[in-house]
Every structure is written in structure tokens, then in C-alpha cells.
Recover the amino acids of this structure.
């Protein structure tokens, strides 16, 4: 029986509940403040022995010590069977992407295809939040007027961080302020996941979900990294993505597969998920141009 490629994260709050009994869980690689290097090596070695390959999600908001630990473990084990995938998504959207990779891990894709599929799937995730303040938000462009309005009592802002930044102020209560208050939604079927921080609002479930015509909605606990990412604890974070594993499978399977010229893994897209080598070798720099003899000298 084929053992699925292990999908790993660095905290349990990035592991959303499985949507069905076929979707496996995710492995948790404990950070340095929870496990010493010897324990981390044993933990990773056991995963490789059981699954053969490991695809670890490395969000760009992780502490540098955690990222360094992951690279150190891979270097000491001297293995090419660990993929460290850099991800530029908010925390809840990262957890959603992890769940999609878990769904794909039981399909007949090779570890290289699963690893490189993360970049493809991230393009189809819509990630945002309802915020009580944008004064400390530095992940999305914020104008001076929005900064000033952050100090108003009961101010709320609808923010979309991915795939296209969008920010609009909401009016009193849950009503939208202006025609552009609702973030533009996906043009394909999605399921919406949201998580509450210290902001009491039903706007995401009551207004955003119907406007986006989502197929379903589910609430989960807020990831620990969300307040830091969004610059405030007064938020309701949300992320919409493709829920159907058959659609995810078709999406990945429709992309041409290549072989990495460096490590030999299969890949889709333009970069290997395991060694990060680009699909095509970089073009050599052209030789410096030499001016013709008649124009090489300058002067009268």
C-alpha cells in the first residue's frame, strides 16, 4: 500500500480539520523552543522512514530561528527527500493551502508534483480579514486617510491580501460603506473558512459569504500568528479556496510535468519544490559590446 507523502507544518493551528475520512493529517515539526536539535533530527528521520518524502510548509512570517532549524535538520540529514516550501500567504490561508496539499497527498502524484503544486494552488486562494484597525497593517498598501480613520470609534475595514490587495472602510454596524467595500471574490466555486479574533462581527458569514456565493462556510480557531500578520487582534480572518479534491486533482493534472534538471524530481510550473532549481537554466550573460573603431573615441 502506498504511503502518502508527509505534509508538515510548524504548529498545530495550521492543521485544519479533515473534510473527509480520506484526507490525512499533517505532521508537526516542533520549533526550537519546544524541541532540541537531537529531538528534531529524530522526529524528521521517523517521518522520512515512514513516508519516504516530506513536504514542509515554511511561511515567510515564521520566526527566523524556526526557519533556520528546518534548514539545519535537512542539512545534517544530508537528504534530498525534504522539500521546504516558502509560502507568502496569511496564516489562515496557509492552513487552507496545507489542507489542499493533504488532500492531494493521497492521489497518484509523485512527491515532486505535490511539492511544486503548492505555488499553483496558492493562486486560487482568496485571503483577507475584517479589521478593527489598519494602523499597524504593513502587508497591504494603506493610504493616509485609512490610517486616520483607524482611530475612529468602531471603525472596521474589509481587507483582501491575496491574490489582489483591496482595502475598504465599512460603515456603522455591518453595512458596507461605498460600492467598493466588498472585496472582489473568486469566479469559481469555493468554500469559505473564517476565524474570529477580538472583533465581534457577523460580516464575514452574513455579507461576504453570500456575495462570494461560496458553497459552504466553516469556522475555525484563529491561528496564533494572525494578529501579528494583520497588525491587530481585533479581526475576523477569512480564506476561500477550492474544496473539491477532484477539482484540485484535475487542476494539477492538467499542467505539463517536467523533470528537474538538477535533482531529477518531477515538477509542474517553473521551479522544483525540492531543490528550488528553475525549470530552465538561466541564460548566460551576453559578452560586453565593443564599439566600432570609428566610434570608440569621444571628442571633437
Amino acid at each position: 500500500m502506498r504511503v502518502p507523502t508527509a505534509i508538515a507544518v510548524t504548529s498545530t493551528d495550521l492543521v485544519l480539520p479533515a473534510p473527509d475520512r480520506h484526507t490525512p493529517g499533517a505532521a508537526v515539526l516542533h520549533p526550537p523552543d519546544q524541541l532540541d536539535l537531537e529531538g528534531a533530527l529524530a522526529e524528521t528521520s521517523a517521518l522520512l522512514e515512514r513516508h519516504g518524502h516530506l513536504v514542509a510548509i515554511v511561511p515567510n512570517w515564521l520566526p527566523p530561528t524556526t526557519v533556520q532549524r528546518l534548514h539545519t535538520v535537512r542539512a545534517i540529514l544530508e537528504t534530498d527527500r525534504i522539500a521546504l516550501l516558502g509560502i507568502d500567504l496569511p496564516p489562515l490561508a496557509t492552513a487552507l493551502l496545507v489542507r489542499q496539499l493533504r488532500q492531494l497527498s493521497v492521489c497518484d502524484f509523485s512527491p515532486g508534483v505535490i511539492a511544486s503544486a503548492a505555488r499553483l494552488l496558492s493562486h486560487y486562494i482568496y485571503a483577507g480579514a475584517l479589521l478593527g484597525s489598519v494602523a499597524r497593517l504593513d502587508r497591504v498598501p494603506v493610504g493616509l486617510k485609512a490610517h486616520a480613520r483607524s482611530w475612529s470609534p468602531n471603525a472596521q475595514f474589509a481587507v483582501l491580501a491575496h491574490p489582489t490587495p483591496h482595502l475598504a472602510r465599512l460603515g456603522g454596524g455591518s453595512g458596507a460603506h461605498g460600492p467598493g467595500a466588498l472585496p472582489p471574490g473568486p469566479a469559481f466555486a469555493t468554500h469559505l473558512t473564517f476565524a474570529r479574533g477580538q472583533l465581534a462581527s457577523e460580516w464575514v458569514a452574513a455579507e461576504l459569504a453570500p456575495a462570494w456565493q461560496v458553497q459552504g462556510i466553516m469556522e475555525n480557531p484563529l491561528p496564533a500568528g494572525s494578529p501579528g500578520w494583520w497588525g491587530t487582534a481585533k479581526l475576523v480572518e477569512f480564506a476561500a479556496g477550492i474544496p473539491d479534491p477532484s477539482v484540485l486533482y484535475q487542476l494539477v493534472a492538467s499542467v505539463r510535468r517536467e523533470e528537474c534538471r538538477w535533482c531529477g524530481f518531477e515538477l509542474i510550473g517553473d521551479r522544483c519544490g525540492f531543490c528550488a532549481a528553475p525549470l530552465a537554466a538561466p541564460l548566460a550573460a551576453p559578452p560586453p559590446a565593443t564599439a566600432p573603431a570609428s566610434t570608440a573615441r569621444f571628442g571633437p
Notes: The chain has a mean pLDDT of 88. The chain has eight helices and twelve strands.
